[in-house]
């Protein structure tokens, strides 16, 4: 392989940027390797050792020489203290987490990493391709501080964990593994291609934060097909067996230690041991069963991190050694907490007590928690020496008082923000489905999930597919779009920032579609009160929005003619911003909407303003088919729900497609949406019919409003005020200006006026 006129050029800018990100905060010497490319004649490896300040200037020339000699240019992404040796034990510092994705579904692995770890500081196409044709990638996350000493092992373990979870190259579990330099030339099998720097950001990450994020990242499997449930060992199981490095026992040392530390912190929280005893138990477990054990400082940092997280969620630990007086209401409350901390919670904003029903948390509408306290009081009363004391303990007053105290206990009290925070998981009776990986996990009360789908993923749905084919008139693109919409509705993500308007005359299947999807989703779906998303002269009570907290699909049936959209409210709920709401007679709280809004109607509500925001947000889904009377099946909804499990599997497949391609509305959707908005753009119609536009056009605001008002009156449109017209003009890019000393607008004038009739 020799250089020629068609060879890729060395990218000095990419090399300089790479050098700054990977080595800019380091001191010492960088090991350089120039290795014979695969598929070219064997050559002896060459090495260089270059000080960090000289690296950016030296690498371009080394890259050129390597390319001419059919070698690849590599660097070790760390530094050594002296030249001559670059083994793992020689690495003295590094400041990047890196992942080499060189096989499998590269785009999927990339998205998985970005979702869990954040935007990489550097993204590099290494020049090679997978068997499936994907460009191989190197991703770098720069650390906010260089890793030295004990932190080097944490970085090494982090590389190993992340590579394992996305199927990356596990060679980078070694700190001295070299990597190709972006800006150089890739020449395997004598085929030249540039090692391209695709993107860079200024993002930096704390090592502790990346370790925590990686721990919460599930192992990637094929998305769209559920895998067998992963048998996650409990803390009790982990404390009876050894856990070796590298995930050799199907669990990493980090995961095992985190789970066991969490167990002992919970024991301390419940008064079963002191915090010092919990810390010592973690040390003993690490020494006896972690192979090789973590060093003491790393273990202490992880214990402190999890302890801080527990205190943030549940509040401070009680003062050691202080006990409630025996048989007091405080002691009874403590006994209740010890017995029921795992299956009860209290959240004032959500209406009070919640209880765990083996699959999810339910609001205590039947006073079950009070009955739990009653049984605790009975148990305590049985140990009283005197009957009057026993009667007092078992009284309604004591039950009420002890329950009030228990509600304030840090192990039980919660805030509304702690609930339903798993946007890419779907709870089912079979377990918790990770919608990104297809992996099924055991139910876990610590996740604080209040919803569960009313179907299990699996099976087929032939009747459902025939129904879709009928209501879409055989439009395959519309059917797959509806599948992606359904999959999007399984998630708590609102990243699309859109709402859907299912429009069509009656007997067209849109209501049956929504009712069936809502039934499959169980209490993940909600129905909005009439008028929630159409304009009203009176303010809607915030309770209407409070009831939508945590929902993932909200259906609104708006069927009356002459209505207008409540555009401000729709913008709020689709924009991803927090909403302030409250239940009746309860304190206000804030929540971030997770729901996708689907409005179904026979009539198209009016738009009071037409702007880029509404064009971006609205997906109008036409239902063009009317089912004849003789073909209508009054039992269709029931028949479809016989396939609920298959319909959920169909929606899960749609979720996978949405994650790969987005909603990707077909032409039938974009065309219908644009046509609807254009029809509602009365200001745009007035401008087209009654105005002239251009840089030389100017007119007083009064003249423009007079023209608009006359046109609106004749057209039957709402004319609004001069101010509202001005807002509409500003949204279209016209600028306010002085015209003959009065307020006016630049770039537009009524058609009957000469474009330059008004002087500045």
From TrEMBL:
One of its GO terms (molecular function) is ATP binding. PROSITE patterns: SF3_HELICASE_1. Residues 477-636 form the SF3 helicase domain. It comes from the Bacteria. Residues 736-760 are annotated as: Disordered. It holds the Pfam family DUF5906. This is SF3 helicase domain-containing protein. It comes from Paracoccus salipaludis.
């Amino acid at each position: 392989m020799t250089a020629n006129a068609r060879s890729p050029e060395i990218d000095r800018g990419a090399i300089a940027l790479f050098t700054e990100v990977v080595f800019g905060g380091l001191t010492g010497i960088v090991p350089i390797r120039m290795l014979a490319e695969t598929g070219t004649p064997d050559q002896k490896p060459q090495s260089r050792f270059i000080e960090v300040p000289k690296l950016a200037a030296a690498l371009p020339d080394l890259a050129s020489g390597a390319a001419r000699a059919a070698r690849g240019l590599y660097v070790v992404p760390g530094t050594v203290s002296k030249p001559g040796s670059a083994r793992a034990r020689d690495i003295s510092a590094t400041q990047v987490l890196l992942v080499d994705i060189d096989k499998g579904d590269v785009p999927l692995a990339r998205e998985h990493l970005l979702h869990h770890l954040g935007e990489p500081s550097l993204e590099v196409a290494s020049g090679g391709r997978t068997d499936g044709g994907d460009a191989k990638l190197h991703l770098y996350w720069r650390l906010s501080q260089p890793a030295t000493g004990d932190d080097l092992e944490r970085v090494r373990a982090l590389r190993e964990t992340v590579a394992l979870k996305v199927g990356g190259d596990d060679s980078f579990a070694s700190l001295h593994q070299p990597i190709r330099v972006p800006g150089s030339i890739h020449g395997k099998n004598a085929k030249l291609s540039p090692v391209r720097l695709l993107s860079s950001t200024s993002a930096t990450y704390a090592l502790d934060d990346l370790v925590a994020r990686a721990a919460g990242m599930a192992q990637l499997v094929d998305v769209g097909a559920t895998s067998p449930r992963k048998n996650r060992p409990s803390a009790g199981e982990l404390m009876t067996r050894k856990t070796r490095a590298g995930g050799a026992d199907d669990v990493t040392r980090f995961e095992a230690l985190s789970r066991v530390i969490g167990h002992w912190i919970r024991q301390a929280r419940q008064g079963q041991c002191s915090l010092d005893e919990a810390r010592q138990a973690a040390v003993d477990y690490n020494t006896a069963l972690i192979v090789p054990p973590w060093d003491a400082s790393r273990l202490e940092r992880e214990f402190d991190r999890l302890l801080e997280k527990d205190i943030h969620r549940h509040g401070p630990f009680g003062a050691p050694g202080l006990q409630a007086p025996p048989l007091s209401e405080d002691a009874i409350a403590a006994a209740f907490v010890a017995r029921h901390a795992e299956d009860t919670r209290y959240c004032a904003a959500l209406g009070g007590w919640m209880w765990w029903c083996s699959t999810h948390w339910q609001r205590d509408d039947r006073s079950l928690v009070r009955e739990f306290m009653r049984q605790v009081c009975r148990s305590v009363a049985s140990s009283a020496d005197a009957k009057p004391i026993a009667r007092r303990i078992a009284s309604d007053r004591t039950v009420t008082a002890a329950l009030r105290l228990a509600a304030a206990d840090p192990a039980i009290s919660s805030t509304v923000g702690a609930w339903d925070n798993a946007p890419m998981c779907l709870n089912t009776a079979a377990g918790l489905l990770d919608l990104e990986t297809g992996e099924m996990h055991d139910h876990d009360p610590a996740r604080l999930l209040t919803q569960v789908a009313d179907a299990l993923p699996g099976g087929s749905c032939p009747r459902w597919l025939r129904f879709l084919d009928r209501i879409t008139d055989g439009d395959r693109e519309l059917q797959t779009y509806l599948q992606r919409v359904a999959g999007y509705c399984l998630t708590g993500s609102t990243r699309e920032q859109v709402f859907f308007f299912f429009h069509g005359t009656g007997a067209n299947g849109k209501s049956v579609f929504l009712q069936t999807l809502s039934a499959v989703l169980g209490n993940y779906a909600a129905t909005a009160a009439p008028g929630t998303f159409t304009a009203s002269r009176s303010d809607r009570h915030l309770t209407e929005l409070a009831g939508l907290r945590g929902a993932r699909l909200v259906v609104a049936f708006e069927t009356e003619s002459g209505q207008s959209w409540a555009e401000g409210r729709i913008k709020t709920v689709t924009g991803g911003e927090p909403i302030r709401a409250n239940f009746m007679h309860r304190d206000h709280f804030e929540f971030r909407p997770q729901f996708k809004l689907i409005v179904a109607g026979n009539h198209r509500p009016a738009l009071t303003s037409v702007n880029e925001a509404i064009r971006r947000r609205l997906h109008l889904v036409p239902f063009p088919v009317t089912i004849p009377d003789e073909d209508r099946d009054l039992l269709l909804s029931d028949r479809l729900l016989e396939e609920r499990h298959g319909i959920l599997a169909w929606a899960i497949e749609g979720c996978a497609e949405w994650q790969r391609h987005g909603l990707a509305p077909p032409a039938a959707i974009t065309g219908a949406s644009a046509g609807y908005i254009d029809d509602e753009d009365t200001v745009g119609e007035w401008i087209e019919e009654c105005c002239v536009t251009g840089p030389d056009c100017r007119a007083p605001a009064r003249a423009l409003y007079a023209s608009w008002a006359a046109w609106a009156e004749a057209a039957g449109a709402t004319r609004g005020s001069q101010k509202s017209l001005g807002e509409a003009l500003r949204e279209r890019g016209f600028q306010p200006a002085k015209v003959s000393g009065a307020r006016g607008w630049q770039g537009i004038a009524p058609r009957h006026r000469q474009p330059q009739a008004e002087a500045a």
